[in-house]
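Revision sheet: structure tokens.
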Amino acid sequence: MKNQTYRMTMLFDFYGELLTERQREFFDLYYNEDLSLSEIAENSGISRQGVRDVIVRAESAMQAIEDKTGLLRRFLQMQEHITAIEDAAGQLKTINYRQYEDSRIDQLSDVITRAARALKE
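Predicted:
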């Protein structure tokens, strides 16, 4: 993965609803709203360490779920494969345009591209 923050926000997208309300709130403020631990602590009336503990527990819980289910890993792999399919369909269309000019190849390439885009959504 690109970096730890990106990984954590992806885990939150997949598993955030499984966290407690407090974990979701603190995690969202820290990672998505980019508030510091001190800012969250001040707004919540608890210590900075208390905020950090809640966030660390949320990270650990989501990572444990990912370790068991592998949903995020499989999702990212699927995205890579879909991109490869789209690229191959585009190359087919280019080769067809340059060499064959077969309308059926163009149509099939379009079908493949639309199906790959639908899978990405």
